[in-house]
Amino acid sequence: DAKTTQPTSMDCAEGRAANLPCNHSTISGNEYVYWYRQIHSQGPQYIIHGLKNNETNEMASLIITEDRKSSTLILPHATLRDTAVYYCIVRATTSGTYKYIFGTGTRLKVLA
Amino acid sequence: NAGVTQTPKFQVLKTGQSMTLQCAQDMNHEYMSWYRQDPGMGLRLIHYSVGAGITDQGEVPNGYNVSRSTTEDFPLRLLSAAPSQTSVYFCASSYSDRGLNYGYTFGSGTRLTVV
Lengths: 112, 115
What we know:
The structure holds two protein chains of two kinds. Chain A is mainly beta.
């Protein structure tokens, strides 16, 4: 299973773009990159996912490098409510089944 | 409201007791999983299921049993509670469509303390 590496913590000024990096150098060709966030002690919330093309939705943008060894989640205008732990996950598949393995994530703090 | 429902929200057990954490989803999702999250840590996968009647082990399955008799329900059973199982437990569900796996929807968690 491809593993991911993320910085432990980051700060971002309110209203600025938050760029959260993730390394997944052992990713396989058919594995997707998923991003989740967890606000305080709530259940994680799905943000976005992609295979190789850049993706955008109402919450964020996902930029995946051409070699797919790394990706960046972009929150274009961070607010205080975006303070959370952000998890980058690579979908693992085994014999047609699949499971998510969460890493330790990046603790993003948005500063007023 | 559609989503993943976990019960109970809070539970205190004595060492050696057994109990079942309930998880139900009404979205007809085929995939369901159980995670535990210890204080200040990330989520660790306990067990998961890809459909009714099919379950498999995750990273930390010891001390837990699961079953999936229906699409909607995925209960997690603690066989003999130990203080090391004090944690927050999250249940999640997801689905796939034409080969694309969609994101997981998580429940609000069960906070378990074993004394």
